[in-house]
Write a structure and sequence with these properties.
Layout lengths: L11 E8 L2 H11 L3 E8 L2 E10 L8 E6 L12 E10 L3 H10 L5 E5 L2 E7 L5 E7 L20 E8 L3 H11 L3 E6 L2 E5 L7 E5 L12 E9 L2 H13 L8 E2 L4 E6 L5 E6 L21 H4 L2 H7 L12
Parallel strand pairs: 1-4, 5-8, 9-12, 13-16
Antiparallel strand pairs: 1-13, 2-3, 3-4, 5-9, 6-7, 7-8, 10-11, 11-12, 14-15, 15-16
The chain binds zinc ion.
């Protein structure tokens, strides 16, 4: 069994999804949701595709939603083996501000309830599902954009709803390997809680769900937090000893990563909190320039020609 029974994740580090157009995605995640573009780089495995990171003012772990925009991407289908819904948490008392804001910006939203909490659910322009929930927990954002005062702004992830093809296995993994605690069952979901105060509430479907298919409008993977490189190495051993097949540690420039596929079909990553996004840009100017890792810098001009220009801009209210 486990080599390290004290290994527990604080919660979600980041979530990564496929979309089609960088401007459309930026208009939604910066323009509508008010997140900060904290890094504009490329997919290190496919340099003709951007990798865009949005989060709080510094891209703190637990706040980072990332995208690979690729025009030719086939359309995916949200379903089993994926993060089905990404939850964003706003301060207690900010719920009606967000209901009004989405209406004014022409984003349709449905209201629903789980575990006694009210959720505002929407889809982004590619079909990715998201929701807003208000909670006391979690530090206020320091970022203000597009008419959202910092005390109303998204603080980060509330958590995620996992759509599993083998929900009891996914639940056991969350409890026995990732170190979350099972806290209840409601509305067809089992709820698990991590010890952090952002990205810490994970709901898993109770009934087996048919597999979705990958492509634009779907989440590619969910990454969990490891506090540093020492703990990361322990995580790799712990995941392997628990019967999963983690990849070797990969350098993702702003964190180190390992990946493994869980039994419910969802791709899990474990990512280190350090070094973070101020590694190669000043905190004041995050996300303004295309940042390339050293090994791609000599190809900068060819790479830039392949990428569609886009900008962070304020949207007009209706
Ligand atoms: Zn990742």
């Amino acid at each position: 069994m486990s080599t390290n029974t004290t290994t527990k994740t604080a919660g979600i580090h980041h979530i990564t999804a496929f979309v089609r157009n960088p401007q459309q995605t930026t208009d939604f995640y910066a323009g509508v949701l008010g997140l900060r573009l904290v890094k504009k780089t490329i997919n290190f495995d496919a340099p003709e595709v951007y990798h865009l990171y949005f989060g709080d003012d510094v891209g703190s772990p637990g706040t980072i939603i990332t995208f690979f925009p690729w025009a030719e991407s086939r359309k995916g289908r949200v379903g089993g083996g994926q993060v089905g819904i990404t939850s964003y948490v706003v301060p207690a008392g900010a719920y009606s501000f967000w209901r009004e804001r989405l209406t004014k910006l022409g984003v349709e939203a449905q209201e629903t309830e789980r575990f006694g909490e009210q959720y505002l659910q929407f889809t982004d322009p590619d079909g990715l599902r998201g929701e807003i929930v208000a909670r006391e927990e979690g530090q206020l954002s320091k970022w203000s954009f597009g008419g959202i005062p910092a005390d109303m702004a998204i603080k980060g992830f509330g958590g995620a709803v996992l759509f599993s093809t083998a929900p009891s296995s996914t639940g056991k993994l969350l409890e026995n390997v990732m170190g979350l605690e099972k806290v209840g069952e409601d509305a067809g979901f089992v709820r698990y809680k991590a010890f952090g105060d952002l990205g810490n509430i994970i709901d898993v479907n109770v009934e087996v769900m048919a597999p979705g298919s990958g492509g634009s409008g779907t989440v590619h993977h969910i990454a969990w937090r490891a506090k540093d490189d020492v703990e990361h190495e322990a995580w790799r051993q712990h995941v392997a000893a628990s019967g999963f097949q983690p990849t070797p540690i990969v350098d993702r420039q702003y964190f180190n990563a390992i990946y493994f596929r869980e039994e419910g079909g969802i791709l899990f990553e474990i990512a280190t909190d350090p070094p973070g996004f101020a590694k190669d840009e000043e905190a004041l100017h995050l996300g303004e320039k295309l940042m390339l890792p050293a090994w791609y810098e000599k190809h900068r001009s060819e790479i830039e020609k392949l990428l569609l220009p886009f900008e962070v801009r304020e949207l007009e209210m209706k």
